[in-house]
Design brief:
mainly alpha; 6 strands; globular
């Protein structure tokens, strides 16, 4: 009894030490959350390593995945704007991010804490001698941890470029051991790819629980497709061949992924963990530690019972793109219009009688806590990514046919015409991704990957804050290449003197 008490006391201490809140947010494990004594004695039973893995998964219930994806992927782009009178958030709208922005530090810290949680699992799993830990399950745990770590580094590489590469757990308080210099983005991508290849060999095709909360082989393959598509440097092979290959691995997976017949089902709250979902975060409105409070910051006042301004309002440019579509199916599933008198909107109030469009891809909220899940990856994303790669490989007609027979057919939209040249076809596919995936955090990456970010942002009609008595003023983004990356958080640079700043940001 004394030894058990000591063990659980020390486990609690490690949670505090690592700063990771291990909360039970799913029913796939009936375990007490683990953090651990010192990692030398914490890992004895199968439950110990399972609990550590839960800890890595539970970082999905933090700001980065609850609402920052929309901020980074849609608000920064031409899809939406942020009218909130909050300086750190408004910097994302104007692309005038300061290295002292507190949100940057939160995201940086969360991603590296996730990596730390994965490293703890990977370094300690061989200590478990419990016969209940089968070799098959051991391999799956390793695969899940490597997938989560790969996703974290993929996000870091996209957001900041070169970054410290931490592949072992960090227990030391010695800054000489913990303060690492930035590694090249190329090296980070190489480790991401290796992690995902390793994971794919060990992961099952399906999660036997029926939920899409755990990493599977399909998840690893989908991430490999997205990683190869996003690689920002020259490679020694045709990367688009790799994108097509891994997309096909997903499309033809034994998991039998399929598009839902009704687009609206994806967001009505009753069809989560569907055949279209590859990986999604499971939220629970009844558990404050695992609820999704992101929708309350997006949905209209009538649905959230709150009158504050929302941080993600669809842009005029996106609304026009939806209205140019021959069918209103995706518009009605993505946007809801509501007349608001609580505030003046500089984009919509003056010409729209205070009727404002709001994002609508969450329906389960009745207030701040919501049980709406978040899609990390779904099949439509992978199908359209394959079409893009086919087009880049000059298989234009095949790419167009794939889109016409899948996402466009589902919503009875006007097919993309045949006979387009490569650039026109790419434009059409990119527009299809925009309409299909709006407010799911993809738009910025799409614009970066296809080389369209500078032109799109510099031609965008966005406006600064205004009042009924003051005219709105167009934002001049003056977008250049340095804005493709975020500044390294200054607080982290103060701690780690080895970190250099990204070009164009101060202090250098």
């Amino acid at each position: 009894m004394k030894n058990n008490f000591k063990r659980y006391f020390l486990q609690i201490m490690l949670v505090i030490f690592f700063g990771i809140a291990f909360v039970q947010c799913d029913d796939f494990l009936d375990l007490k959350p683990l953090t651990s004594e010192s990692t030398e004695t914490a890992f004895v039973r199968k439950q110990d390593i399972e609990s550590a893995l839960v800890g890595a998964y539970n970082t999905f219930y933090t700001d980065f995945y609850v609402w920052e994806g929309v901020l980074l992927g849609d608000v920064r782009s031409d899809n939406a704007y942020n009218p909130i009178d909050d300086a750190p958030l408004y910097e994302y709208e104007t692309l005038q991010l300061n290295s002292s922005n507190m949100n940057l530090m939160v995201d940086w810290t969360m991603l590296y804490r996730t990596i730390q949680g994965c490293n703890i699992v990977l370094e300690n799993i061989d200590k478990i001698k419990d016969p209940n830990l089968t070799e098959k399950r051991k391999g799956e745990i390793i695969g899940e941890a490597k997938t989560i770590r790969a996703l974290s580094y993929f996000n870091i590489a996209k957001l900041w470029g070169d970054a410290p590469l931490v592949l072992t757990q960090t227990n030391s308080a010695n800054p000489d051991k913990t303060n690492l210099q930035r590694e090249s983005v190329k090296k980070i991508y190489e480790y991401v790819i290796q992690d995902l290849h390793d994971a794919a060999k060990k992961l099952p095709d399906v999660n036997t629980s029926g939920k899409k909360d755990r990493a599977t082989k399909g998840v690893a393959m989908a991430l490999l497709a997205k990683v190869y598509a996003q690689i920002p440097f020259e490679v020694s092979y045709n990367k688009y061949d790799s994108v097509i290959y891994y997309c096909n691995e997903v499309i033809n997976s034994p998991a039998h992924y399929q598009l839902l017949t009704n687009y609206d089902y994806l967001f009505d709250g009753a069809h989560y963990n569907s055949s279209e979902s590859i990986w999604e975060i499971q939220f629970s409105a009844s558990n404050p530690d695992c609820s999704n409070w992101g929708p309350s910051l997006n949905l209209p006042p009538s649905l959230t019972r709150s009158t504050w301004r929302k941080y993600c309002i669809p842009s005029q440019d996106l609304v026009n793109a939806f209205k140019n579509e021959a069918t209103p199916i995706r518009y009605n599933a993505s946007i809801i219009n509501e007349r608001v008198t609580y505030w003046y909107d500089e984009y919509w109030s003056a010409e729209n009688n205070n009727v404002i469009p709001f994002t609508y891809k969450w329906r389960g909220t009745g207030g701040v806590p919501s049980g709406d899940d978040t899609y990390l990856i779904r099949l439509a994303d992978i199908i359209l990514l394959k079409a893009e790669a086919l087009c880049q490989n000059n298989s234009v007609n095949e790419a167009v046919q794939l889109v016409n027979n899948s996402t466009i057919a589902r919503v009875n939209a006007t097919p993309i015409p045949t006979g387009l040249n490569k650039e026109k076809a790419l434009d059409a596919i990119l527009n299809e991704r925009r309409l299909e995936l709006a407010f799911e955090g993809h738009r910025w990456d799409d614009l970066i990957r296809t080389g369209r970010i500078n032109q799109v942002m510099n031609s965008l009609n966005d406006y600064t804050k205004a009042t009924p008595s003051s005219p709105r003023v167009k934002i001049s983004y003056n977008f250049d290449d340095h804005l493709k990356l975020l500044p390294i958080p200054q607080e982290e640079r103060n701690r780690n003197k080895k970190l250099t700043q990204n070009p164009g940001y101060f202090p250098q």
